[in-house]
Amino acid sequence: MTKPDTLLSVRNLSIDFHLRTHVLHAVRNVSFDLKRGQTMALVGESGSGKSVTARALMRIIDKPGRMIGGQILLDGPNGPVDVARFKEGSREVLAIRGGRIGLIFQEPMSSLSPVHTIGSQIVEAVRLHRRVSKSEARARCVELLRQVEIPQPELMADRYTFEFSGGMRQRAMIAMALACDPQVLIADEPTTALDVTTQAEILDLIKRLQDARGMAMLLITHDMGIVAEVADDVAVMRFGKIVEQGPVDDIFHASQHPYTRQLLDATVKLESGAAIRALPASLTPSVEPVLSVRNLTKIYGAPSRMFARSGGRGLVAVDDASLDLFPGENLGIVGESGSGKTTLGRMILRIVEPTSGTVTYRADATSAPVDVTALGKVDLRRYHQDVRLIFQDPFASLNPRMTVKQIIGDPLVISKGMSGKAVEVRVAELMGKVGLDPLAMERYPHAFSGGQRQRIGIARALALNPTVIVADEATSALDVSIRSQILDLMIDIQKQLHLSFIFISHDISVVRYFCDRVAVMHRGKIVEVGDAETICTNPSQPYTRRLISSVPNPDPRNKRMLHRLRTDQV
């Protein structure tokens, strides 16, 4: 039996995936309650079973998975109904999906149809569960878009997915999930693909809608900061089992399970400051920077460098950016999606050609400065040996048809002319340096986890003994504990090899942990540069204050104490 305030009870839920070689026990004897007006956070790393559990509540289980036991008791007018008893695809299940239980997907770009307007998709969801005319469903659609704070909802209903920003797409996804006033809302990593300020706005929106409607919410996330701000109760999953659950204050301040404490310890707190390390002595005015960027501009649509400013035509991605990187320094470039930070990093590497401005590189104190923007192909290849890139996505950036030895050794073969045993010895050395077993060098990327793949990417970047590494969102695709390990690994490598890092990120808390100085970008411009600790504790610019106020505070006792600045306040 369910308690009066309980809208959904899960009891001993178990799900297996029958694979070719073995049976994967994805979910094992999971039990929890979702209460009216409250939020239960289901947390854990990738592969813990949290998303499989959440989707099972709506009887959405990908093949070859199947539910092998348990109850899903959903409150109804005549008492609780066991959803687990219904056949998949039955009328009862279809009535529950989107009707009594709503789902916000993780990635709206892949869950919204690109060939139908946003409005037509919401109208379809309304008419699927309610007997209303097209005009009534359209009116309901417009009202939902207004509730999720999409401007000009009548106009935007006729737009397509690609015409919406990431945050707007997520708002449309929320509107669709709420189309038929569900009792229970499942939010499966609803902000993973969003930058920190948009994330804050979406979380606040979901909370306001939940309070107004009295819904129970199941929040799936690996971000303990979000859990601290949003959740009332927490269940921690690992290897398909709930290892600990309870009120959010108890989980954060009196956790009993070692894995829960590991997740909490790995959370990079905004208040914690930089990682414990000595700042490089090179950060003094007497030392020449290893890289100098001066007035660097990128205008897409501009005909040439000569006419960069003519008529103001084109899209200005980076506008007159200037900064220095010193030997042994970690310089962070932080900003929202579309701020120009990745374009700036790629212009420094000459992957993207600048419209105007210069990038000057000095290999060491005795070397003459080189204008990177004027280098020919041969000299540019030499520059790329010294200045290397770590990519954002460890899954997409490694060739699945190459072994780890080939991936790491490729730069050695191409740039150094090495072959045979020499490559193997160097690859083994690099794998050991990044914490990987050299005996695994003949394996392919699919055999490695996300964190291990990023270590492979770091080893590849180190292969040619660079002096500078540009890390573009190098930890954003990783779980919190893996992210912490990769950051610490890069700090250790920097100390050993005396590298300089340009660390590009939208997460200012991670930048504060890793970097000595920070450059803040907004709408293509660098609006503030300074010491990381000073920028994060006493920023001078309104936009920087907005970024900091948007970072989830990983302490439920300080829930919602920070005043968040909205976009229109900047």
UniProtKB/TrEMBL annotation:
It is a peripheral membrane protein. GO terms for cellular component: plasma membrane. One of its GO terms (molecular function) is ATP hydrolysis activity. This is Dipeptide ABC transporter ATP-binding protein. It is found in: Cell inner membrane. Its main location: membrane. Residues 10-264, 291-548 form the ABC transporter domain. Keywords: Amino-acid transport, ATP-binding, Nucleotide-binding, Transport. PROSITE patterns: ABC_TRANSPORTER_1, ABC_TRANSPORTER_2. Probably part of a binding-protein-dependent transport system y4tOPQRS for a peptide. Probably responsible for energy coupling to the transport system. InterPro entries: AAA+_ATPase, ABC_transp_ATP-bind, ABC_transporter-like_ATP-bd, ABC_transporter-like_CS, Oligopep_ABC_C, P-loop_NTPase. The keyword Transmembrane does not apply. One of its GO terms (biological process) is amino acid transport.
